[in-house]
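Q: Hi! Curious about what Prominin-1 looks like structurally. Here's the sequence.
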Amino acid sequence: MALILGCLLLLGLCGKTISAGPPSSTQTPEGLHFDLPAVNYETSGSPSTGSITGLFRMVHTFLHVVQPHNFPEDTVRKIIQKKFDLMEDYKEVVFYEIGLIICAVLGLLFVILMPLVGCCFCMCRCCNHCGGEMHQRQKKNGPYLKRYFAISLLVICILISIGIIYGFVANHHLRTKIRRTRKLADSNFKDLRTFLNETPAQINYILSQYNTTKERAILDLNNVKPLLGDGIRDQLRPKVIPVLDDIKAMATAIRETKEALEKVNNTLEELESGFEHLNTSLSNIRTELENSLNDSTCSEQMVTATCNDIRKSLGQLDININLDQLPPVHDQLNSVNNILRTNLTDLVEQGYKSFNDIPEMVQNQTKNIISDVKSVLDSIGSKISDVTNQFPIQDKLSDFKGYINDTEKSVNQGLLTLEEYESYRWLGCLAVCCLLTLIVIFYYLGLLCGTCGYDKNATPTSRGCVSNTGGIFLMAGVGVSFLVCWILMIIVALTFFIGGNVQKLVCEPYENRKLFQILDTPYLLNEKWEYYVSGWMFQKPYINLTFEKVYSDCKENKGIYTSLQLENLFNVSAHLNIQEYTQDITNEFEHLNINLDNIVLLDDAGKQSLEDFSTLGVEKIDYTAYLMEIGKNLTKVNLVSFADNLLVTASRLPPGALKTSLDGHAQSIKRIHQREVIPLERSMSTLNQSLKVLQRISNGLTEKLNKIILSLDSAQKFISNNASSLIVEESKTYVNTIIGYLEHYIQWVKDSITHKIAACKPVATALDSAVDVFLCSYIVDPLNLFWFGIGKATLFLLPAIIFAVKLAKYYRRMDSEDVYDDVEFVSMNNMENVNNSYHKDHLYGIHNPVMTSTMEH
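A: Let's find out. The predicted structure is below.
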């Protein structure tokens, strides 16, 4: 009882304190996952009965059959309100207790009647009635009756033995559990002290986690360059980098254009010089061939036709290409050289550098603000510490330690007294069980001796000593039964009425929480308070705070702040308003002004170079005319083929000066092809490649350049005019990240205070230990099992007495026997037994008139 009062006192005291629980944020920033240190408690709070549980359930079932009515809530409410009048409301009590009352009345009748019956039975036997006469009449069904009485008594003894075993088990279980009560109490008090000691440690842990949060925020503040600067740069990258890449590619195209123009110009000059020299060589060879054909040999009839054919082909020895009609590229080359005086590549690299320096610019422009924000974080930590110090929980818990010590002292003293008297109780219950055991042993010994010593050939007056001892044991059992059964029934009735009522009125209502529901009845404990708990704790009886809710929340290990609705005393949400703490940081970041006006992607000189390149006129070159002209054969006829044909023709001429001259000219033509034509063809191939490069570069050049210039202007304009909105967006993301750390921490603090700090499971466990475990499981259940077993054994003593008395007649040695008038019903075996008995009587000089009459008959 002291432990129960201590638990209720704890609830009351904690009602004037503040406590809390764990984070519930849905999005946890990386590296900021907070968990309160786990608190381990020893006491489970649930009873453990082991293999004996089935016996307890059997007794519960029996009680439910005897007492099937629902818990009398209305009657209990009347008793609590002191409105119960026994004279008027006794019917309700009788109706509820009718089962227990009937059983108690039956037990009372048993207590009253059994001594009277025993006394009458004793006196009756003294008058040779009720089986007191040592005479047994022989019956035809005697063996069957003896067997029936023996078996019935054996079954009854077994049932009595089971009841006795229940009694022994219950007695031992009760003693064992009472010895464990001190350990249970110590475990509960240890858990309560752990609860008191860990709560301040949890609060200190919460405060210490602010340093972790602040360090994470400061880390991000120190990394403003990669976090904010890189973010801004990455947002600008899609607008800027493609433009700079295009300009860089165009600078490469300008250099390629210059190289191609130089090659075209140089190749044209080489070709002009080569064509002039080739033209001279071909003119000379034509003149020499004409002079050779003026030889007198050509006047001969056989040779004239051949000479004329050669003379006609001399016109093919000429150049087939005319480069003079192609436009020169001197102007384009001079223009591109002027453009290249401005190093566009270096200007582009400067644009890249200017863009990549954005994070550095952001860092330099935010130094002062970052310093101010760090100061604000320090001040927020001090505010949170001040708010936490306003909780009176540590002082209250320190005061409560004294109450715990006093309660523990009272409990220990009570347990000492309990253990002292427990020995007497155990001895008393053991004596009860031993008395029943003695009785049933008498019956077992009577059955054993009577059965083993019974001789079916012996007459009732000649039964053996063992059989007679069995009968004596049975009658001894009957005698002891009459002496002690009424005392046993008194014990059974008392324990039954007490244990049954405690089980039905305390244990079961506590388990199904009917007791809490009754206590939570509006205006029950105080006529002016709708809810007693809130009225007692907050002087606000209209707040829906009930015993059942407090117990259920503590059972679920919720914090006292939630369980007792302590927001009515101290509103954590109001004192830990997130906006109040984050507004200072937001105000500091409002002065954030990042300026990117100094970023220049390409200066005017570079832009002018692009514009000049767009007007270069490379795309206006008649590439088709160039390619068509240089695509022609260099000479009108292939010189090698011409020389070969000339050699073939000369071979048909008669030997002489003409043939020799033609052979020499053919070789000269081949030398011209080898020395002059082939180099010129190579130069023409180089010219062709250079022209194709120029054609590729110039393809859509103006459109590309205009697009690049427009993109450049757009990107530069975006940086100058529109980047501010982008900077604001990135800055908001960065600021929200910093504030998010603080919001997450404050939300976790609120959730911890309202849910987990000072989780009151040890209080509910202590209450369960006092009522459910100690009272119901340790005491009431074994007590109920004890009266159930002993009561069962005691009740079965009645039929055992009857069967034992009847069976004893068949085991004990009688003083006389029946005389059988109808010999037709007497067997030859019985006649032989009678004859044997007659001779024995004469042998020992005993005169038995009945036997003599029988024999004479």
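A: A fun detail: The chain has a mean pLDDT of 78.
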